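Re: the request from the purification team.
They wanted to know what the chain is likely to look like in 3D before they choose a buffer screen. I agreed to run a prediction and write the result into the notebook, where they can find it.
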Amino acid sequence: MENVHLAVEDEDLYSGYNDFNSTFFTEELENDIGFQQALRTSQGRRPLMTAKLPGTAIGGRPLASSFGSRVPLASSAGRPVTGAVQEGAARPMTSIRAAGYTSTMMRGSTLDTLGQHRGPAPPLEGKNEDAPEEKIKIMEKKVNDLIEESCMAYSSGTSQLALEKAKEARRKEQALVRQREQSGTADHINLDLTYSVLLNLANQYEHNEMYPEALNTYQVIVKNKMFNNPGRLKVNMGNIYFQQKNYPKAIKFYRMALDQISNAHKEMRIKIMQNIGVVFLRMGQYSDAITSFEHIMRESPNITTGYNLVLCNYATGDREGMKKAFQMLISVPLGIDDEDKYIPATDDSSTNMVIDAIKNDKLYQMERDKKAQAEKYIMTAAKLIAPAIETSFASGFDWCVDMVKASQYVELANDLEINKAITYLRQKDFNQAVETLKTFEKKDSRVKSVAATNLSFIYFLEKDYDQADRYADLAMNANRYNPAALVNKGNTVFVKQDYEKAAEFFKEALKNDSSCTEGLYNLGLTYKRLNRLEDALDCFLKLNAILRNSDQVMCQIADLYEQLGDLQQAIEWLMQVISVTPTDPHILAKLGKLHNDEGEKSQALHYYSESFRYFPSNINVITWLGAYYLDTQFCENAIQYFERATLIQPTQVKWQLMVASCYRRSGNYQKALETYQNIHRKFPDNVECLRFLVRLSTDMGLKEVQDYATKLKKAEKTKEIQEQRVKSGRESSSRGRRGSREGSADSSNSSRGERRSGKNISLPASNEPYESSSPKELDAYYVDPLGPPTERPKTGAKRVVEEDFADEDIGDDLLPE
């Protein structure tokens, strides 16, 4: 009781609160020798005192402390302890149990205030996967994973796999709904998950062009009133009907979607109205389309809608409407910053690094593409309406140029002027084109180079190579890095047969623009002229990698392989040409020749026959086919080809003689006699025909034999006199001038060579009345249908027009977004 103080009247009631009693300081109890000794003695192991029932007035009763010892305490007011417990039961001391104390101490135990001797905490209670809620959560996660996999598969280009994943997600989602219904939690169905599954499935059906299934799935979503804003999906349904070209239904669904979207979503409403205008345009209802497009241009103008408005007014023939629409088109703001921000203005290295970083980033590329699209639409619209808005296309172009100069696209004015010159070229009004282009000689270097390039092209077409060379030099001086000007300069040097210098210009053009296909093609032709076949082949192989499926390039490659002696490679490349142009008779004939050179007669027959089927007037193909059937003793089949040759060359007696020879070979002597008689009427002095008539008449016992024999003698005598005259004339003309005689001999040999190349079949000899020369001597001579390399340049390869001002087709860029 020494630590218990009773209040006295004259004492301060608030004194003693700041006093510290070391008895209550428990942090050093482990080092307190007396306290630890007490715990080890019987005092610390004494059984607990319990209250006895029913006694309550036990003032001064010793109570068990939290340390296991008994301290007799009494309240200051003498209040009796009322909380009695059963005999032998320990009274809980819950007020300090959380600190690690206990009301009873075991033998040998020590104080563990931090709970270090209790061992590890018990493991967390595991989830019961068999519980219905856990099963539902797992199924929902699987459905979400399938939706993500479906979207990723579509983004990678595998639409079929995306559809399979979407279908599987739909099946699992339906199983999830049934699971909830069975567990009695149908009120907790995840509607967002159901909406996502159905929308993804409908999209995948649409991407795989399974339009009926997509429409049915969209209908399931739209008809469910529990989903939020399902009416927007009617836009997607309208797009499907648009793809099916069911335009009335497309307009119906677009309008239904427009009615269900509030005015707060202005951008969405504008896009839907644009789709409606496009559908009206496809239906030919231009006035309704104009109404929709004009509303869009007033509310939210854009380049695509302005271009479509120009097209609609052009279709209706409204001149004022076209002018108004064009003015609205060029006044559309692009929202693109000035490009000066990409030009370094200071010497600050950090600023320049930032500018270099953003110079080619995706945002700048998007801005550049947007500007290029706007310029393309404006140029196309101007070229379209220029001939229609005024009495002449020149006046129309002038009006368009004036409007463009007053707009934000002032740099397009010069381009329109050059397009005006190109329009003159298409109308074959070269003088006006030249005059228009010459006006640019004093303009800035870029426009001047373009105009000079086109002038060089015009003069090259007119074979005025001096002027072409002059303007090519002018274009190069204005812009040395203009690849088209360098190609034109190389062309002018090429026609002067200075191939080495031409190759240098073509190489320089390729250095400035590695994608200059004209320069690469012409460089290959130049190497062929220089007999550098390997270098030429390398050029055309590179060009083939750029211009896939170009028949001209592949023909050049095949021709080079043939010159290099690799016929198999030549055949393979010509087969690729046939896959691109399967009806080209010259390529088919070339394949026939190569197979014939390889000894593959059956393949040669196939390709020659195909060539004849597509072009039955090639005399070389006809000759080969006729000779082949004569060689294989199918004379009846050869007759049709020689008759065709007779129609092509009616003044050439050799084809008619071959027809008669085929009749003789087949044993039809009467028909052969009639054919020879017809030939005799047309060519009465032909010795070979008379010789066969004499022998056929003799064998058949005809009375006309004597008449034919007389005519034969007369014809032979006349032929002999003519030959003597020719021989004597040649001898007299060659006397005294050996050089002239040698030149004449060369010319004669050349002409005889040409005759041999044209005359493929030997006529029957005089001592062979019923047989012509041996069929093995009938070898069809084939002339390369492609011609010499320089005679078949790629169209436009040597005649370059600046690509920036080539004709643009009027596109049908009207599909809904």
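For the purification team: Strands lie at 62-64, 70-72.
Please add any questions underneath this entry.
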